[in-house]
Amino acid sequence: MRAPARIAVGYDGSPGSEAALRWAAALAGALEAAIKVVHAVGLLEHAGLASLSVHEDRARAIAAGAGVEPSRVEWCVLEGDPGSVLCRMAEGPDPPELIVVGTRRSLVHPGLLGSTSLGLVACAPVPVVVVPPADRAS
After folding, report:
1. Residue 18 belongs to a domain with what CATH number?
2. Which residues of the chain register pLDDT less than 50?
3. Which of 23, 29, 37, 68 could bridge across to 63 with cysteines, CB 3.0–4.6 Å?
């Protein structure tokens, strides 16, 4: 097995996605890998209620803080739900060799993964890392 040269990470600005981005960026920085930050566009963005530039600026700052060269960071906005978007991307041209996502903390079942994480693990053709929220990470 060789280290991944291309890592994709789902990012929507939530605490869980920020934890995933920090983890993926640290790995990409250590491996000198490229990182594709993927934002799935939903109804809020279509309605103009959310600013994508804020998310992109934050994502690039997190990657730079982890030592990822700016030329190795790609911001990608795709339409659809996050799990489907990441699965389609992993099956397309120039796919990532690793996908990293966060998970939301469930108040009802705190030990369980969210539906996006579970769906992605079930469909992804490449390894998937699910990063726990910062308050549960060790």
Report:
1. 3.40.50.620
2. 109, 137-138
3. 68
